[in-house]
């Protein structure tokens, strides 16, 4: 997996990922601005079979809906803390399931899930129990996704 941290433009991403394809990456994470949904769609189609992972900077379900509808992402990296609540997380999770896009939460979300004892993490310990359960579920989904590669 590779992370561009939102700094490349569409053509630059395609050029760089074609050069890096020999290393067989699973995905390129955040190749361009998180607001550029159509740019992500173009990147996804031009660099396949390398996947596109993004979403950690999406702040609501509408952005995710547009990513899914535009066929712009292969891996949904929602950040439960950034989405601002359990309802948004559940809605994005359901949309991802509808579109067949696996959820691989951002490292921020993963860092909050202090496996095996999640209660000691300073961030997640402030979450309601239901949101902690969602984060744990995302961690399990993430590890299962990696084990199938």
Q: Can you tell me about this structure?
A:
This protein is α/β, with parallel strands linked by helices and about 150 residues long. The chain has a single domain, classed as Alpha-Beta Barrel (TIM Barrel), CATH 3.20.20.120. It is built from 7 helices and 4 strands, in the order βαβαβαβαααα. Strands 1-2-3-4 form a 4-stranded parallel sheet, with helices on one face. Helix 3 links the parallel strand 3 and strand 4 (about 75). The longest helix has 19 residues, at about 130-145. It is globular. The chain starts with a strand and ends with a helix.
Please describe the topology of this protein:
Layout: E1 2-3, H1 10-20, E2 27-29, H2 37-47, E3 51-54, H3 61-69, E4 75-76, H4 80-83, H5 86-99, H6 107-112, H7 129-147
Helix pairs in contact: 1-2, 3-5
Cα separation of the termini:
11 Å
CATH fold name: TIM Barrel
Strand order of the largest sheet: 1-2-3-4
Mean pLDDT: 80
Q: What Rg is obtained from the alpha carbons, in whole angstroms?
A: 15 Å
Q: What helical percentage do the residues reach?
A: 40-55%
CATH architecture descriptor text: Alpha-Beta Barrel
The helix/strand class is alpha/beta
Please report the first level of CATH classification, the CATH class: Alpha Beta
- Note poorly predicted spans: 108-125
Summary of the model, kept short:
The chain is α/β, with parallel strands linked by helices. 50% of the residues lie in helices and 7% in strands. Helix 3 runs parallel beside helix 5 (86-99).
Keywords for this structure?
metal-binding, TIM Barrel, alpha/beta, single chain, 50% helix, 149 residues, 4 strands, Enolase_C-like, Enolase C-terminal domain-containing protein
């Amino acid at each position: 997996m590779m992370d561009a941290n939102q700094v490349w433009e569409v053509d630059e991403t395609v050029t760089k990922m074609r050069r890096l394809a020999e290393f067989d990456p699973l995905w390129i994470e955040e190749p361009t601005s998180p607001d550029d949904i159509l740019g992500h769609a173009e990147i996804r189609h031009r660099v396949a079979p390398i996947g596109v992972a993004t979403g950690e900077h999406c702040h609501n379900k509408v952005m995710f809906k547009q990513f899914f509808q535009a066929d712009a992402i292969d891996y949904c990296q929602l950040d439960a803390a950034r989405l601002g609540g359990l309802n948004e997380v559940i809605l994005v999770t359901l949309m991802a399931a509808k579109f067949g896009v696996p959820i691989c939460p951002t490292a921020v979300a993963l860092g909050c899930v202090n496996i095996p004892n999640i209660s000691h993490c300073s961030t997640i310990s402030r979450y309601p129990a239901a949101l902690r359960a969602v984060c744990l579920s995302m961690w399990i989904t993430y590890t299962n996704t990696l084990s199938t590669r």
